[in-house]
Predict the structure.
Amino acid sequence: MNTDINYQTVVRELAGIETTSDRDRLTKLSLDYYHFSPILTDKLQNKRGDLAVFPTTEAEVLQIARLCVKYKLPLTVRGAGTGNYGQCIPLEGGIILDISKMNQIKWLKPGIACVEPGVKMAAFDKKAREIGWELRMAPSTYRTATIGGFVGGGSVGMGSVNYGQISDRGNLRRVRIVTMEEQPQVIELQGDEVKNVLHAYGTTGIITELEISLAPAYPWQEVIAVFDDFMTAAKFGQALSDSGGIVKKLVSIHADPIPRYFTALQNYLPQGKHCALLMVSEYDFAPFQDLVKEYQGEITYSKSASEALKGTSLLEFTWNHTTLHARNVDTNLTYLQTFYFTLERLEKLYQQAGDEIMIHLEFLRAGDKAVPAGLQLIRYTTEARLNEIIRDREVEGAFIANPHVFTIEDGGNKQIDPQKVAFKQKIDPYGLLNPGKMRGYQKPVESSL
Amino acid sequence: MNTDINYQTVVRELAGIETTSDRDRLTKLSLDYYHFSPILTDKLQNKRGDLAVFPTTEAEVLQIARLCVKYKLPLTVRGAGTGNYGQCIPLEGGIILDISKMNQIKWLKPGIACVEPGVKMAAFDKKAREIGWELRMAPSTYRTATIGGFVGGGSVGMGSVNYGQISDRGNLRRVRIVTMEEQPQVIELQGDEVKNVLHAYGTTGIITELEISLAPAYPWQEVIAVFDDFMTAAKFGQALSDSGGIVKKLVSIHADPIPRYFTALQNYLPQGKHCALLMVSEYDFAPFQDLVKEYQGEITYSKSASEALKGTSLLEFTWNHTTLHARNVDTNLTYLQTFYFTLERLEKLYQQAGDEIMIHLEFLRAGDKAVPAGLQLIRYTTEARLNEIIRDREVEGAFIANPHVFTIEDGGNKQIDPQKVAFKQKIDPYGLLNPGKMRGYQKPVESSL
């Protein structure tokens, strides 16, 4: 790794491409929402890139890749920086490649679209809905997150109750990437090959184009239903997820006292009740109401799709936005990504939770069924105690995708993917792409460069 | 029950409504596809209605209902007569009410439509697709079957892998029925109340209008894939059903030698192989191909949606059309409707099947997951042996919806539904609607009339 590089030289060689070495901007462009984790905060808060670049075309990306290889500069790709595990934080400095100016929708047709990585998700949907389609899934950071960033660093979101994870076969169809080989080139990955870049934090190529599958767009009614009892609310969530006859997009259940953190929604959240934040097809609202009634729920908020589009979406209180709202009130809170898989396990863990843990669920399709998962809030004390909480849950059979680590393997994947590692060795022989994030990859020793 | 009625009088009093007492037409209008069952054949082949009526409006249905109550005439409602359990066979003669002339689409909008019961399913879809929608599910008799007939006597079909059964909450929204009370009237059932008429064989009111939920219309690619091994084909079927990222509508797996019965498809069905007959979104064809490859399948037939619409759909080789094709070759064959629920149970029963039983599967959503079900073909010997086969399967935990019985309760429901019975007692106090089909209902003694 070249530590003596004069970035003035680099900037000169990148003539025509926008760059910045402004310290404040670099700070902003070096970080993400890692600060939800006190553990990551300690480890990542001082990491900084040395130069940020803003290419607008694949040709410019190629030019940047060539330069990085020439000078052996680390290169970390970044979308909107809405991740939470430091996915785009440059551990070894170097160049930050911000994709936000590569934001063209190349084509859009029923069922499929081709986009540049910097297209923002909500902006994409606005265009796609003109022809009756929308993204199959999107995270709670939908308004600002980019499609490329979600593919590179995300996994699930609203819509996952229908379409599963972005990594499920069929959701991502094709990617073009720029490699960091001795002679950087553009290659295309199709079908199952796209796994090499999915949730790889940009360690396995610089995505310049993506072909994604779409979902038919429904008018999504946004609804809050409240329940006296948490497990009844959870069972309602499972039942709605399993109701083939009721089309939905978001099923998020929040145990009291989490609703207290939703300041903007207090009018709809009676004290002591547990709430469901939901997006349901307007067409199916009548049978949906019957289901709420069956579970003794009460609808306290209901906005048509067109009304909902004007204000803040309920989406922005679910998934990891729940953590955001809770931390706005109490910065001592952190979270754990948890798959409960069954309501029985959930009930057991709910009963054990005490004051230290607050549970919310987001239902998503995992393999053959919709399962309760969620990002439980934790009152943080020490790293040791957090790890104990993780172990206790794992002993009960829950799966924890640990968000307090910054490598791919230590989070949700749990193990080294030899195929991804081999792919990286091939397309990034100098180990320049987002170094330090793929634990399974051993960087070649300096001298061999 | 009035047995001395002079039907000439009835015809006169129905002036303005088309009727027939032509013996050949009455024979045709009295029967359905009950003859797939040798047991039902013995019991039902000689049942005949005395007069068939062809109302075109709800007002005419009311007029017919009044007359039936006045003369205490049995009334049996009939759609296209594509059922298999004698649903519309008039056990006690009387009037056959053919709904086929009540075939108007009242309105059609995104997500929901309102139709008269005699609208044919394929014809409906042709109209609905003009605005991008289609039926959520339809049986293999789709081309001729009516929507009212399916609601009254059917349950599942293509599309059920996504939307479950027609009885699943949300699929049927509202019905209007004419009652057979002392003063027949029109009433509306909404939401969960529609259960009273679902799969009730017309014993609980004469449906005159239905509001149904729709599905977004995809261009459905029709595909045959063949496999060396049946259980691999079955596992592929489960995997496709569970693939959130691949949109599909029909997943039907046929064990060798069933494919031999598909005369028209022989070019695509290599000797000794097991086949999958499939409908998959054209948009998702690429990832679908990857899935076929993963299970070592070979695609031997693939038609785009527009090509498929021109010829015979693969749908017409699945569900109970399989039985039809098999019986065209060997009339000694009959069938059993079987839910296996798991691949483990399927494998066990497949290994026990021998030559007597041939398995095909149609995957459908049942509660929280897609499960293998199907209408296994049976080489018929005796009723006793058939019942033994049923028992053997039930002992293994499979669920058999017995298609060799003609009451609602003895088939799939297995038990008397007190709510349906109470509803019938209220709206049909003389027990005139399709008498003999609801076992839980006791007809009032004659003298009390």
In short: The first helix of chain A runs from residue 7 to 13. The mean pLDDT of chain A is 95. Chain A touches chain B at residues 110-112, 132, 136, 162-164, 168-171, 173, 190-192, 213-214, 216, 218, 238, 242-246, 281-284, 286-291, 365, 367-370 (CB under 8 Å).
